[in-house]
Amino acid sequence: MSADPDCIFCKIAAGRIPAKKAYEDEELLVFHDIHPWAPVHVLVIPKQHIESLDAVGPEHHALLGRMMALAPRLMRELGVVNGYRTVVNVGRDGGQEVPHLHLHVMGGPRPWARG
Ligand code: AMP
Ligand code: ZN
């Protein structure tokens, strides 16, 4: 599986940096955001290094579907009952800070810290 040795999310996927995991399978990892915007804020990442949504090709379509489809299950398991947001930041002007594709999934009672 492709990995970037300098990428922080690749390091988390490889277990070289600790993270509070919420879900894991062969292709995907979900962990809690270190600076949460909401009472529940997790990041869904592919284990393989994909720089951003902009780098996605047809070979990744099933993977993207799996990432998005995981959100309702995660929110249910984490006790979110009244809705949630899914966000993908893309590139510099899109506010992407970590250049490894990730889906933010945020929920829990308002008010939130951000978002
Ligand atoms: P983005 O701005 O969309 O690239 O979001 C990157 C997110 O990754 C931010 O919300 C950060 O708080 C989060 N983040 C960065 N480093 C870590 C880490 N080591 N563990 C958990 N979340 C992180
Ligand atoms: Zn990476």
Q: What would you say about this model in short?
A:
The protein is an alpha+beta fold. It contains two helices and five strands; from the N terminus they run αβββαββ.
Write out key terms for the chains shown:
alpha+beta, binds adenosine monophosphate, globular, 5-stranded antiparallel beta sheet, HIT family, subunit A, 5 strands, 115 residues, binds zinc ion
What's the structural blueprint in terms of helices and strands?
Elements: H1 8-13, E1 21-24, E2 28-32, E3 40-46, H2 61-77, E4 84-87, E5 103-107
Adenosine monophosphate is lined by residues 8, 17, 19, 31, 33-35, 43, 89, 95-98.
Residues in β-strands, percent: 15-25%
Q: What ligand species are in this complex?
A: adenosine monophosphate, zinc ion
Weakly predicted, low-confidence segments: none
Order of helices and strands: HEEEHEE
Biggest beta sheet summary:
5 strands, antiparallel
